């Protein structure tokens, strides 16, 4: 085999194929990493391996797909533009188009800010920004839907929003030295840039953010109902509870998939076989989907977000809880809140991973399928490989597992007679077993200290 | 204290006995008259008495409804019967995948059968008896299928007289020997060529053509469509009776037509990642591809092959490999460009035959929420129901509705599918009676309105190219044994 | 000693398999009922069966004293339906799954080593049974040996694989162990694809040997288990039919009873105590001189032995089974059984298996029953719960089975299964066994309970 590879090495096709394989491997690994990160966040805070991540991931794809409803069978209420139901409150007849555009941008930013402030506990300038955004949205809604003609000019809405926002900040003790909440600001800027590009992007990213928020709320609800009563019980019981949740939730996600293919309709939408919009580009004779790079970007963004999150006040609290629950409690940290936030973040990441798991290279159809729920089980070796409680472990484990799987599939395809059909799908488990024999707690996991 | 507890317990037990004795005394007295072998009948009578004593309130309320129904029913004919047929009902069983991987397909088929028999019952039933469908879920799981079979085949009133749906090749083959033992008839939702096996072929009634002939027809059709003078073939299938039977048919055609097989992926499709298959397909660059998989797998493989650079090949595959709903996804254009759908029956609205018109009218009325993604699948359930009704009526006419009688009737009838599928009968040599016709459709994305309800005009995006179609290979093939025999 | 429970005067009495008389009686009764269940015997079921054709037949006849008690003639419905063929199969399945669950109970319940790989070891057992007992053909390996070789052989092979795996397991702790053993399941299914000579076709599987008891490879078996028979009853008074299902039922029941006694015995032995010490605090156990590596290896071997035997039984019971049946869901089922039944106890494991396997049947029957209700309170409930046509509301659809809201009863069964795991763990962490203990304690102190 090595001889063959060396013989091919002189050829540009060889490098092109290698590059393509690496990109696919890294992007599939990116999805694993996002989901693994969800596992890690939940495990760090609550010591629970959340086996329900798969169902949450599938639910995420479905959320986005439901939000992009432009199908005649899901008849939308009159007057709502398909795919952008949340823009509808701001869409008026004959009103300035720019007002609608702004309103939708602000709405998305508002939701992102809300999520961020939920996760970090919120800072005063953050709250004032949110108040301002809410005021702006209310003005636009009044103008377009309730016929307040004097509000028609978007600039007036903006001025009112500024006054209310700054007023709210001052009233609650705003000091200019406080840092702006990074997440909301970054999202806001990104939204404006993207809006300048194409409105389908904001719509879709808006849907994605809403789906992540839904997922986070679902995660919080699950934690409250099923996990909170179990605090202090054996860890394995908690893990099995999540297995029970997975079994129950999966029925609903699968049932939704069975009726129709639930397409996620991403803005870089691949239409495989359509030369005008094939959703990618060719380089040295190999084809690259845009989604490969979108997944890599999403992976990096989520790891950056988690990095900052762990630096926030609540993130520190979470790290304290994961270090020593009782000591953290004694320091006045609200452990229940930390649990809830961890589940929200973990579930949100599962949703994000689930949405990208509907894209190539994992799924060619760009739609949620019955196998989307299995992506969490495919990501499990990544979590274990990196270490159950390590953030960088999730990233490195995910990418390693993705590369191992794709490389095995691509370069060993001639040996399928010996290896058996579908051999590449157990490569992650074999890699995981091999590494664990040498390092029982994964590459970056913290070894458990045993005391009597 | 201990004695106290005993006392309480004894009093409770005695009072229970007293209550039981007084309530059923009449019944017991009636029963004492009969003797010897008639004991069973006497107990039945006793049960009747008890029922009359206890259940009068509800029955009065229902009597009016019952009267109306009885008017519609013809007078029940005197029939020989053993299990599953009583004075007023005929129990027909189904063991279908309603929660497993093929549930989307199977549940639609079951719903079509239910709608069909609802109508049969409203029109007076069969031989004056109402057809009662016993629907069980096998979850595409062999042990569950066996549990279901035990329940359906029970030799009492709880059993059924025939099984009008048994999902899955491995699942049906797991019960095939028992079917022959119990003299029970089953219609498999599987088009494996091995169902004509002499051991159980008299009990397993495969409708329409099989995977093997379909593969021959498909490959021959593709070879004719291809621009290449001598097209190269790739075969990609799942392992097992379904996939490898299809692969066997494709290979028989390849050999007869002198096609070179450049990639043989028989049994290679497993799980949900297909990187090695796609790599090999792209490297082999075949002109035509035959695929026997599940719809989601087809989408993955075609999508991956297109992205990998195999854009010139034309594809077709066994009927269950394709699902209209795939047109709604990113691989829609690829399917439109390269895929031909093969089926065993005519599709929804494809012709004006009386059977088609009748089915469309009935189902539009009874299942108004169904959409065009499901419409084509209805036909399978509908034709299964036509088969079931024909067989039951034939058995009733012969005056023998025992299980064996129903099997005998099925072995002698000729079923008229009223233009929905080629007419079929099962007597004689399989080589003579096996159906060899399949239908081949082109996928047209622009026409497809997958999510439209069937009450409105729409289309599943399939345009008939050939059908009923029998290629030369299939027509001249000596069908004396299954094309593929599994290792079990 | 009367009236003073839990007062033991010797160590032997304390460590007896069944320390109290009540337990002995209960176990005896349970076993008796299980043995009588498959028959339509008037004591517990149905109208006078053919087994007692004469009116004066000793126990069941109409002119005897028992025959005068109408309720016995009518049959006690709860047990009566177990006489039917369709309840025999699930019950047999309960015995087989319980055998495997007993093994996991020793590993996870007693030893504290949670494994999600139990299905893998069942698969190993099934494969061994196939090779040892199955018939060989062109494409299949099989030695055609009798059951007394392949059944223990399946257990031993699985135990050996368990010993092979245990060094890894000793290194890993807690959830890492759980997930690694989960990996074993995937690897096992893949191996079954790589070796079709052992496991047969990937989807259809292969035929597994039957339970017929032979001395060696002779034609007619010593005891015929796989086909119906007519048996002459006690004193030659009567004859009755025994079907293959009933025989399989007894075969599996006997295996289960044997294995359950073995498990019960093991728990009270030196090994059992060592495992409990490891579960409670492994490092403390080591300090006390318990060899952790050795005992974990023993636990894995024993648990895999049980799984192997059960796997062989299961494959043979199903008849034709594919390698991918030994999958993650089966493993999860065992965990659910353990947690619902109550981990660490033999009776809890048995209760849990019964509950988990029989529950779906009960839900289906219950829905059928509900669908027949037209009026009264049950009718109102039925109206609220069931969707019988378009425009109706209610979570359970009886009108059609197609996907979409108003899920069909089969989907609800899965949801109920999942939710029950959650509910049991939250409200009764000790499982059914815990509930039983509570009831027992209530009556023990009655009427002075609070």
Structure description:
The complex is a heterotrimer of chains A (452), B (488) and C (450). Chain A has 452 residues and is mainly alpha-helical. Helices cover 67% and strands 3% of the residues of chain A. In chain A, the strands form two sheets. In chain A, strands 1-4 form a two-stranded antiparallel ribbon. Chain A starts with a helix and ends in a 14-residue tail after the last helix. In chain B, helix 4 packs across helix 13 (372-397). Chain B is globular and about 65 Å long. With 450 residues, chain C is mostly helical. Chain C contains 18 helices and seven strands. In chain C, a hairpin with a 6-residue loop joins strand 2 (229-232) and strand 3 (239-242). Chain C is globular and about 65 Å long. Mean pLDDT of chain C is 79; it is low at 41-83. The chains are: A mainly alpha (452), B alpha/beta (488), C mainly alpha (450). Chains B and C meet through helix 1, helix 2, helix 3, helix 4 and helix 5 of B and helix 3, helix 5, strand 1, strand 4 and helix 17 of C.
Overall mean pLDDT of chain C: 79
Low-confidence stretches of chain C: 41-83
Structural domains of chain B: how many: 2
Number of strands of chain B: 15
CATH architecture of the largest domain in chain B: 3-Layer(aba) Sandwich
* Biggest sheet descriptor of chain C: 3 strands, parallel
Number of domains of chain C: 3
Largest interface: B-C, 65 and 55 residues
User: What is the overall number of helices of chain C?
Assistant: 18
**Widest β-sheet, arrangement of strands of chain B:** 7-6-8-9-10-14-15
- Given helix and strand content, the structural type of chain B is alpha/beta
**Class from helix and strand fractions of chain C:** mainly alpha
Measured by DSSP, the beta-strand proportion of chain C falls in: under 5%
Class of the largest domain in chain B in CATH?
Alpha Beta
Q: What is the first-to-last residue Cα distance of chain C?
A: 25 Å
Mean pLDDT of chain B: 82
* Overall radius of gyration of chain B: 27 Å
Under CATH, the homologous superfamily of the largest domain in chain B reads Response regulator
Q: Strand arrangement, largest sheet of chain C?
A: 5-6-7
Q: What is the topology?
A:
The complex is a heterotrimer of chains A (452), B (488) and C (450).
Chain A: H1 2-8, H2 12-46, H3 53-67, H4 97-120, H5 124-145, H6 154-171, H7 182-197, H8 199-227, H9 235-259, E1 262-263, E2 280-283, E3 286-289, H10 290-311, H11 313-323, H12 325-330, H13 335-356, E4 367-368, H14 375-386, H15 391-411, H16 416-419, H17 427-438
Helix pairs in contact in A: 2-10, 2-11, 2-13, 2-14, 2-15, 3-8, 3-9, 3-13, 4-5, 4-7, 4-8, 5-6, 7-8, 8-13, 10-11, 11-13, 14-15, 14-17, 15-17
Chain B: H1 2-32, H2 39-54, H3 56-72, E1 80-81, E2 89-96, H4 103-122, E3 130-137, H5 142-152, E4 162-167, H6 169-182, E5 186-189, H7 211-225, E6 232-237, H8 240-257, E7 260-265, H9 275-284, E8 288-292, H10 295-308, E9 314-317, H11 332-338, E10 339-343, H12 354-366, H13 372-397, E11 400-401, H14 403-412, E12 414-415, E13 424-425, H15 430-433, E14 438-443, E15 462-469, H16 472-476
Chain C: H1 11-14, H2 21-36, H3 70-74, H4 77-80, H5 85-110, H6 118-133, H7 147-171, H8 174-194, H9 196-199, E1 206-207, E2 229-232, E3 239-242, H10 244-267, H11 270-280, H12 282-287, H13 292-318, E4 320-321, H14 328-341, H15 346-372, H16 376-385, E5 386-387, E6 396-397, E7 407-408, H17 409-427, H18 431-444
Helix pairs in contact in C: 5-10, 5-11, 5-13, 5-14, 5-15, 6-7, 6-8, 6-13, 7-13, 11-13, 14-15, 14-18, 15-17, 15-18
């Amino acid at each position: 085999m090595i001889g063959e590879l060396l013989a091919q090495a002189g050829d540009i096709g060889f490098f092109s194929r290698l590059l393509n394989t690496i990109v696919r491997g890294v992007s599939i690994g990116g999805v694993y990493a996002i989901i693994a990160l969800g596992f890690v966040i939940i495990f760090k805070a609550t010591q629970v391996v959340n086996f329900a991540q798969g169902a949450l991931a599938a639910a995420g794809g479905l959320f986005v797909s439901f939000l992009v409803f432009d199908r005649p069978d899901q008849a939308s209420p009159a007057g709502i533009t398909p795919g952008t139901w949340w823009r509808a409150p701001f869409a008026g007849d004959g009103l300035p188009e720019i007002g609608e555009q702004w309103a939708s941008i602000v709405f998305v930013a508002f939701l992102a800010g809300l999520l961020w402030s939920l996760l970090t506990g919120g800072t005063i300038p953050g709250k004032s920004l949110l108040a301002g955004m809410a005021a702006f949205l209310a003005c636009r809604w009044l103008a377009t839907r309730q016929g307040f003609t004097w509000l028609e000019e978007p600039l007036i809405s903006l001025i009112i929003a500024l006054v209310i926002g700054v007023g709210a900040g001052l009233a609650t003790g705003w000091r200019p030295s406080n840092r702006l909440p990074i997440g909301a600001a970054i999202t806001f800027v990104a939204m404006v840039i993207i809006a300048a590009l194409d409105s389908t992007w904001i719509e879709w990213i808006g849907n994605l953010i809403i789906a992540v928020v839904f997922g986070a709320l679902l995660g919080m609800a699950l934690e409250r109902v099923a996990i909170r009563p179990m605090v202090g019980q054996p860890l394995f019981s908690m893990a099995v509870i999540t297995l029970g949740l997975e079994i129950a939730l999966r029925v609903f996600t699968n049932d939704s998939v069975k009726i129709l293919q639930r397409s996620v309709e991403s803005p870089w939408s691949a239409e495989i076989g359509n030369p005008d919009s094939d959703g990618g580009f060719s380089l040295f004779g190999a084809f690259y989907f845009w989604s490969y790079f979108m997944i890599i970007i999403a992976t990096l963004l989520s790891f950056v977000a988690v990095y900052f999150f762990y630096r926030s006040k609540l993130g520190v609290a979470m790290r304290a809880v994961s270090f020593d629950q009782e000591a953290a409690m004694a320091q006045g940290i609200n452990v229940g809140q930390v649990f809830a936030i961890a589940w929200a973040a973990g579930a949100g990441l599962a949703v994000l991973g689930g949405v990208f798991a509907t894209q190539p290279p994992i799924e060619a159809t760009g739609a949620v399928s019955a196998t989307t729920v299995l992506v969490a089980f495919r990501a499990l070796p990544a979590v274990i490989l990196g270490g159950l409680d390590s953030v960088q472990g999730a990233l490195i484990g995910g990418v390693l597992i993705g590369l191992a799987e794709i490389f095995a599939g691509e370069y060993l395809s001639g040996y399928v007679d010996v290896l058996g059909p579908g051999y590449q799908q157990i490569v992650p488990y074999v890699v995981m077993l091999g590494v664990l024999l040498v390092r029982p707690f994964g590459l970056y996991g913290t070894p458990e200290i045993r005391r009597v | 204290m201990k004695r106290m507890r005993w006392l309480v317990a004894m009093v409770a037990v005695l009072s229970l006995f007293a209550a039981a004795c007084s309530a059923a005394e009449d019944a017991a007295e009636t029963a004492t008259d009969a003797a010897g072998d008639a004991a069973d009948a006497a107990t039945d009578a006793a049960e009747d008495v008890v029922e009359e004593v206890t259940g009068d309130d509800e029955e009065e309320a229902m009597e009016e409804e019952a009267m109306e129904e009885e008017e519609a029913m013809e007078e029940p004919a005197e029939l020989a019967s053993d299990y599953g047929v009583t004075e007023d009902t005929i129990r027909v069983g189904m063991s279908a995948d309603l929660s497993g991987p093929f549930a989307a397909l199977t549940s639609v088929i079951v719903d079509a059968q239910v709608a069909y028999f609802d109508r049969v019952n409203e029109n007076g039933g069969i031989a004056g008896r109402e057809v009662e469908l016993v629907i069980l879920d096998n979850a595409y799981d062999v042990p569950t299928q066996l549990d279901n079979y035990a329940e359906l085949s029970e030799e009492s009133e709880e059993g059924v007289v025939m099984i009008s749906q048994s999902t899955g090749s491995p699942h049906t083959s797991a019960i095939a020997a028992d079917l022959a033992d119990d003299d029970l008839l089953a219609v498999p939702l599987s088009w494996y060529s091995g169902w004509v096996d002499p051991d159980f072929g008299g009990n397993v009634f495969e409708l329409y053509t099989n995977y093997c002939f379909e593969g021959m027809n498909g490959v021959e059709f593709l070879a004719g469509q291809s621009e290449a003078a001598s097209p190269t073939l790739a075969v990609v299938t799942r392992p097992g009776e379904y996939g490898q039977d299809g692969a066997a048919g494709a290979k028989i055609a390849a050999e007869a037509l002198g096609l070179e097989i450049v990639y043989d992926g028989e049994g290679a499709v497993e799980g949900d990642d297909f990187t090695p298959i796609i790599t090999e397909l792209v490297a082999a660059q075949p002109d035509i591809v035959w695929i026997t998989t599940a719809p989601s797998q087809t989408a993955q493989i075609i999508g991956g092959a297109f992205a990998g650079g195999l854009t010139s090949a034309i594809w077709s595959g066994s009927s269950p490999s394709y699902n209209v709903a795939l047109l709604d996804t990113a691989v829609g254009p690829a399917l439109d460009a390269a895929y031909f759908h093969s089926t065993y029956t005519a599709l929804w609205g494809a012709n004006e035959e009386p059977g088609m018109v009748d089915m469309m009218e009935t189902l539009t009325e009874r299942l108004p929420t169904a959409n065009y993604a499901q419409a084509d699948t209805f036909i399978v359930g509908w034709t299964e129901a036509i088969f079931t009704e024909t067989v039951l009526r034939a058995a009733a006419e012969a005056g023998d509705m025992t299980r064996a009688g129903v099997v005998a009737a099925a072995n002698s009838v000729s079923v008229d599918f009223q233009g929905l599928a080629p007419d079929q009968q099962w007597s004689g040599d399989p080589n003579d009676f096996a159906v060899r016709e399949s239908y081949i459709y082109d996928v047209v994305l622009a026409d497809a309105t997958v999510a439209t309800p069937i009450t409105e005009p729409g289309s599943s995006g399939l345009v008939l190219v050939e059908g009923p179609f029998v290629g030369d290979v299939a027509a001249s093939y000596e069908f004396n044994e299954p094309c593929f025999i599994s290792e079990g | 000693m009367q009236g003073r429970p839990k007062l033991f005067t010797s160590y032997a009495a304390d460590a007896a398999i069944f320390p109290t008389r009540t337990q002995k009686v209960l176990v005896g009764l349970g076993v008796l009922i299980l043995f009588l269940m498959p028959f339509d015997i008037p004591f517990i079921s149905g109208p006078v069966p053919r087994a007692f054709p004469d009116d004066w037949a000793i126990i069941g006849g109409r002119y005897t004293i028992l025959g005068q008690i109408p309720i016995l003639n009518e049959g006690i419905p709860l047990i009566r339906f177990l006489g039917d063929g369709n309840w025999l199969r699930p019950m047999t399945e309960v015995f087989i799954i319980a055998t495997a669950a007993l093994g996991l109970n020793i590993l996870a319940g007693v030893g504290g080593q949670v494994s999600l790989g139990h299905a893998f070891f069942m698969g190993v057992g099934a494969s061994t049974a196939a090779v040892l007992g199955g018939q060989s053909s062109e494409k299949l390996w099989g030695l055609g040996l009798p059951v007394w070789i392949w059944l223990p052989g399946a257990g031993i092979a699985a135990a050996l694989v368990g010993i092979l795996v245990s060094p890894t397991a000793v290194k890993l702790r807690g959830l890492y162990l759980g997930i690694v053993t989960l990996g074993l399941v995937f690897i096992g299914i893949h191996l079954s694809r790589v070796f079709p000579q052992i496991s047969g076709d990937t989807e259809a599987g292969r035929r597994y040997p039957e339970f017929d008891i032979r001395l060696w490879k002779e034609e007619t078996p010593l005891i015929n288990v796989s086909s119906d028979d007519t048996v002459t009853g006690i004193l030659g008074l009567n004859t009755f039919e025994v079907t293959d299902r009933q025989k399989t039922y007894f075969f599996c029941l006997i295996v289960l009873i044997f294995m359950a006694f073995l498990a019960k015995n093991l728990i009270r032995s030196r090994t059992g105590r060592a495992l409990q010490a490891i579960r409670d605090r492994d490092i403390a156990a080591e300090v006390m001189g318990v060899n952790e590596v050795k005992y974990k290896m023993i636990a894995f071997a024993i648990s895999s032995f049980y799984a192997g035997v059960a796997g062989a039984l299961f494959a043979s019971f199903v008849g034709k089974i594919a390698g991918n049946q030994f999958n993650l869901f089966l493993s999860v089922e065992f965990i659910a059984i353990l947690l619902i039944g109550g981990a660490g106890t033999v009776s809890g494991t048995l209760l849990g298996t019964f509950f988990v396997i029989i529950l779906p049947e009960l839900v289906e029957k219950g829905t059928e029953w509900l669908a027949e209700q037209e009026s009264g309170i049950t009718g109102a409930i039925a109206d609220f719960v069931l969707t019988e046509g378009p425009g109706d509301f209610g979570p359970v659809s009886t009108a059609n089975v197609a996907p979409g809201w108003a899920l069909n009863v089969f989907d609800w069964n899965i949801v109920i299964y999942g939710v029950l795991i959650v509910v049991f763990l939250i409200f009764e962490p000790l499982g059914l066994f815990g509930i039983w203990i509570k009831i027992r304690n209530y009556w023990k102190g009655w009427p002075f309970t609070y």
